[in-house]
Amino acid sequence: MSVEPTTVTVPENPSAVREPGTASSAFLSVLRSAQVPRILVASLVGRLPLGAAPLALLLAARESMSLGWAGVLVGAYTAGSAVGQPVVGRLADRGRQGPPLWGAVAVSTVAFAVLALRPDPPVAVVAAALAGLGTPPFEACLRALWRDVVDERLVPTAYTLDVTAQELIFVVGPLLATAAVALGGPSAGLLAIAAVQLAGTALYTTAPAVRRLRSVPVARHWSGPLRSGRLLRILAATVLIGFGIGATTVAVTDHAAAAGRPSWGGWLLAAQAAGALAGGLAFARLVSANPARRLAGVAVLLGASYLPLALTLSLPLTGLALVVTGLWLPPVLTGVFLVVDRIAPEGTAVEAFAWVATAFAVGSAAGAAVAGTVTEGSGAAAGFLLAPPAILCGAGLLARLIPARGGRALS
Questions:
Q1: Considering only CA atoms, which of 115, 117, 108 is closest in space to residue 137?
Q2: DSSP readout, 160-182?
Q3: Domain limit, last residue, from 167, 188, 215
Q4: φ, ψ for residue 17 (rounded to 5)?
Q5: Could you say which DSSP state residue 288 is in?
Q6: CB neighbourhood size of 125 (10 A)
Q7: Per-residue pLDDT tens for 99-139?
Q8: Which terminus of the chain is more exposed, N or C, with fewer CB under 10 A?
């Protein structure tokens, strides 16, 4: 099923863009498009709390609560975000993006302010859930906007650029939380996150392309994009891929601690993020030509790349292995978003992209929870063994997106 873009706007530069020759020239072509630097930077700034909030909540909670309650706060924030983003995305699909984003960020800002007052656990848990519930779905909103700000041939590159740049959130976010707490204490970390989120919302929603964006009047079903069986299959695959990523994060931390170098855990995960940045640059076009047919194959490569980690190599070799695993994540996520863009029912683009983000977050949280139990009883090697089968099962679901011989392709 192929649909037309769900929103329309008048492009500032309607001239055609020549097909770039290399990945780097393609990225430059996207960045040279009118308004792209602004909306991309604004979106990334607004998404920083996704990387900063868990650490800031842990640092704030440990001042007055037990470690168990601190974990509950992070879980409440994550769960709130998983629920809230598709809801806000549906509202954005039905009108303009600005009002729902401002309404969401208002709820989140008030909740962070309450958390900064360091209330008792029951109130703090509710506030953490509301802070997550009001997280603006910048990722989904931006991906629904790409077709209106770049040439059609550059849309796959724009997705890849966004997916690749998102790795910066999980590098800069924790640094932001740590610096704010060091300068002003735990409450300052929470208030800094709220301020950054507000700044990103203001910069994004005031961009001309966002202000001009209007939804297309269409008949809407109560289930939104979830009425698409193909989309449900993609979401299930995304949960499994996220499960593998989350399980590996815990196993890496345990592996570093068991080796007597717990501080290496952060560096090892940074190596994986560096691999993802390199993968985005190197494989920008790997799935763009025919995403439905190539996506499953790239997902198999992603799953297979996790197998060497089960050998519990030395920490330096583990770092190199994690770089390799990072290489394949951007092309997989790019392919997922390209396919979702083609199969989402008309008028549901933002919500559909938000469901992908929610599916990945749910899978990652589940993987971390299972890996925590497994590694505690059997060590890091058992934790590392969780990722390959989960991701390869996800690849199997994605393979079912390939149309039968003579069937209608998705791309």
A1: 108
A2: HHHHHHGGGHHHHHHHHHHHHHH
A3: 215
A4: -105, 130
A5: T
A6: 18
A7: 999 999 999 999 999 999 988 888 999 999 999 999 999 99
A8: N
411 alpha carbon, distance to own chain's centre: 23
Q: What's the pTM?
A: 0.82
327 Cβ contact list (under 8 Å, min separation 6): 275, 276, 278, 279, 282, 283, 305
Q: What's 197's DSSP letter? A: H
CATH classification of the domain holding 157:
1.20.1250.20
289: amino acid identity, one letter: A
Q: What's the token pair of residue 376?
A: 């505690």
* CA nearest to 52, candidates 177, 144, 145, 152: 177
Residues 183-211 have pLDDT tens digits of: 998 899 999 999 999 999 999 999 998 98
Tell me the CA distances in angstroms from 390 to 69, 79, 241, 257, one per residue in order.
29, 21, 6, 25
DSSP alpha helices (H): ranges in 229-263?
229-258
Cβ contacts of residue 364 below 8 Å, gap of 6+? 242, 243, 245, 246, 249
Cβ atoms of 250 and 375 closer than 8 Å: yes
Residues 194 and 56 in one domain: yes
Q: 359 phi and psi, to 5 degrees?
A: -60, -40
Q: Same domain for 284 and 384? A: yes
CA 121 to centroid of chain Cα atoms: 28
CA dist 175 and 181 (Å) reads: 10
